[in-house]
Amino acid sequence: MSFERKHLLGLEDVSAEEITHILDTAETFKEILQRPIPKVPTLRGKTIVNLFYEASTRTRFSFELAEKRLSADTLNFSTSASAVKKGESLRDTAQNIEAMKVDMVVIRHSAAGAPHYLAQCIKGSVINAGDGCHEHPTQALLDMLTIRDNYKDFKGLRVAIVGDILHSRVARSNIYGLTTMGAEVALCAPQTLIPYEAEKWNVRLLNDVDEAIGFADIVMALRIQMERQTQNFFPTLREYHNFFGITRERLDRANKKVTIMHPGPINRGIELDSDLADDEHHSVILNQVTNGVAIRMAVLYLLSGETQE
Ligand code: CP
Question: How many CA atoms lie within 13 A of 29 on its CB side?
C-alpha cells in the first residue's frame, strides 16, 4: 500500500488501512532496531527540525533517536534556547525554517491547531507531537503497536481510558485510533474531566473505576495534568486517588488479567499505584516507550515518500 499523506496532524481522519500500514511498517523498524548496528540510510540527506514549544522527555527523545536511526540530519529547537524567548512568533519561526529548506518538522505546542497552521506555512511535512488538549497521534500509534504485541486483534478488545480525559490529547488520539480499529472504548473520570464532545465519540462513559476495570482488557491510565487545571475539577488529589486511582486492591478485587498502560509521565500514587506501574505482570509502560522509536521511524519514513534500501 502506498502512503499518500504529506502530514500527520491527528488520527481523527486516518483510516484503519492506514493505521495498519503504519503499524506494519513499524514492525520492520523494530527488527532493524534489534540489529547490532541499528541504523539505515533511508533518510540520508533529509533535514528534520524538532520544534518543541512544550516540555517533553519520551516524545522528543524518541523522535530524535528515530531520526538518527534513519540517518537524517536533525535540528533541535526548544523555546528556552531560541528566539521565541525574544518574542518571535510561530509564523516567523516557520518562515525561517522554510528559508533553510527543511524537509520535515516535528512540532509540540501548547496551542491546539499549531501543527495545522504550520502545515499551511511551510512546504515540508509536519508531524504533530502533541498540540494542546487536541491530539498526539504518534503516542496513540505506539500505544496501538504495544496493544498489537499483546493481543491478536483490535476487534472486540475492550480499552478503558481512566483519568484526565478533558485535557488529554493522548485520550483523543487513542479514541479515534482504537475505535477506527474496532476496539470498544470506555472513558472513566470525574464528570468534570469528561469533555462535552465525548457524547459524539463512539465510547461508553463510566464514572465507577471498578466498573471500568471490570469492563476492560486494557486500562490506560492518564496523568492528572496539574499544569492545565484552571478550575477545581475535583476536591483533592487524595480524593481523586480514592475514587479513580488504579490500585492493586482494585485489580485484586476484579480478579482478572488486565494490562496497564500509561503514556507517561506518571504521577505515582495518584492515577496509578507505584508498584503497579513497575509490575511486569500487568504493566507494559516501558514497552510503550520502546515502541515509540519504531513508530516514529515508520511515520517519518512513510511521510518522506522514500523507499527503504
Ligand atoms: N507521552 C508523552 O508525550 O510524554 P512526553 O511529554 O515526555 O513526551
Answer: 32
Please state the atom number of ligand 1 nearest to the C-alpha of residue 55: 6
The preferred substitution site among 58, 107, 293 for testing ligand 1, maximizing ligand atoms within 8 Å of CB, is 58
pLDDT in tens, the chain (309 residues): 778 899 999 999 999 999 999 999 999 999 999 999 999 999 999 999 999 999 999 999 999 999 999 999 999 987 776 777 777 888 888 888 889 999 999 999 999 999 999 999 999 999 999 999 999 999 999 999 999 999 989 999 999 999 999 999 999 999 999 999 999 999 999 999 999 999 999 999 998 999 999 999 999 999 987 666 666 788 788 999 999 999 999 999 999 999 999 999 999 999 999 999 999 999 999 999 999 999 999 999 999 987 765
User: Which fold is adopted by the domain 16-136+289-303?
Assistant: Rossmann fold (3.40.50)
137-286 shares the fold of 16-136+289-303: yes
Cβ-in-10-Å burial (0-12, 13-18, 19+) of 205 comes to middle
- Ligand 1 interacting residues, C-beta cut-off 6 A: 56-60, 130, 136, 139, 263-265
Give the integer Cα–Cα distance in Å for 138 and 117.
19
In this structure, which CATH number among 3.40.50.261, 3.40.50.1370, 3.30.70.20, 3.10.20.90 belongs to the domain 137-286? Answer: 3.40.50.1370
